[in-house]
Amino acid sequence: MSLNPPNLRPDLAPVPRLGDDSRLHGPDREALGRGGQPTIGMVSLGCPKALVDSERILTRLRAEGYAISPAYQGADAVIVNTCGFLDSAKAESLEAIGEALAENGRVIVTGCLGAEPDYITGAHPRVLAVTGPHQYEQVLDAVHAAVPPAPDPFIDLLPASEVRLTPRHYAYLKISEGCNHACKFCIIPDLRGRLVSRPAHAVVREAERLVASGVRELLVISQDTSAYGVDLRHAEDRGHRAHITDLARDLGGLGAWVRLHYVYPYPHVRQLVPLMEATAATGTGVLPYLDIPFQHAHPDVLRRMARPAASARTLDEIAAWRAAVPGITLRSTFIVGYPGETEAEFQYLLDWLDEAQLDRVGCFQYENVRGARANALPDHVPDAVKQDRWDRFMAKAQAISAAKLSAKVGTRQRVIVDAVDEGGATCRTMADAPEIDGNLFIDEGFAALSPGDMVEVTVDEASDYDLWGTL
Fold it and tell me: Which PROSITE patterns match (predicted)?
């Protein structure tokens, strides 16, 4: 089986691994140990939504008196939060479980692959327990059974600060779970259920806490951000309405960057665009950035995927967004080699990409997923053809990216600093989401910078995906 490059897989996110405690910060680093505490390690795989689940599990465990171990050897048990979106992701999850068993021996499995317990125990019968996605109580029960808590009532049973696995200055903000779409290549609704939106006041309250703790960028995530609140009938509660436009407006007033991911191009997305116009002037608010999962452009392929098949109207929407906010950044992911995809349909996709001129593009080759309806479609594309189309697609996307970044040379950009070392500062512009997009590097005069700083930079140089600049 050919595997998609991890940095282009839409189902993968930053992968915090045991053995690296640099992602824990503030009270979380202090919580790594007091004498006698039971300790739990966490390996988190998959998308940012799974990362948020890992953070919630660790936060609950901290409140019960557990310490967080940054190494296999220091843990009384290890939780592996798995991904089950693609067969290749399942293979990576099984490998991670095997590594944890070999290094520690006491492993609890949760996450999307946990929806297939027999698949896991068939490969690794020694795991202590298997639970499905976002089954927080079952994970805690499994931890209690494997490693009973030993809280110190004078220290541990206090309201715990939230444990986060991202750097201090940005955080993922999950606004809903599940999905109402029925795309034939996807089993997310089977794994995580139908759309369930969080109340808007709860989301805003969490965002306020994050900003107060030093977070300067909120990354809004869900399975379908545009559909937020549909299941709640966009009800208003405690002064906050459960609609993505209202929520974006509320979050945009907190003084941080707000980046919207997984936004389906419904007509009401136009209402988000005006919120982005002021951000360039103020430096905070809803960023002029939309992450939209187009997946393909040819109407027949989209119909076979059971997705909206209006690529021409999508181009009109893109033109309208750019007319309103000329600097808006558009990011998307695509599938090549979907069953039945002809050379003509693939060429249509390339021509559409030429016209759309998307700023950031990822692509992966179609893979069968157990339980997905696309598996039964006729005319599966040979692996060699999928690889050839992936190469051609990425060459086209790379050329577009290089031209767009070259046009930024000489401009001033507001950036957020992600890391500083002896070689320079690694930053991101408003056009760059962490881990999945490009970077802006500063290699002179950076000594006074720290992660989380926001500064103005003049762009001096560009490559296919990254920029270089000076303060």
Answer: MTTASE_N, RADICAL_SAM, TRAM
